[in-house]
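look at this:
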Amino acid sequence: MHLVGEYSKVGEKRLIDILKYCEKVKMPLAIENLKSNEIFIEVFKNIKSEMLKFCFDSGHQNAFSKDYNFLKKYNDKLIALHLHDNNGQKDEHKLTKFGETINWQEIAKLLVNHPNISLDYELPQDNKYDISPQEFLNETKKQADLLENMILNYENE
């Protein structure tokens, strides 16, 4: 779920109502870190629910929140990943080969405690790469394999 705007009591009540339903049907609700940190932080500070979870977006962290480590702070709530790289200035959804500014070692260290989480990439295949769709998929697989190997290396330390 993307939360935008400002934190309010009306929004809080609506989110609590949604989470009550999530608890009833045993379905987690993942909040994604976006460009604005305030509403995300307020939700996790003010609303307590076993179904309130976190979707970590590596590109948003890198471009918009370098000084606030969402993955470290909310690691216990992590349930989903949106992995992609960028130039550190804007949300570009690039393969690391074409972005190369995210510290994947740091992310790997924090993913060690999540052996069953999928390494999900949020990457549009378009003309900005100047490679074929097959090459794009191969590069994405290489990137995922590299991250998985980093995670395994930290698990074995």
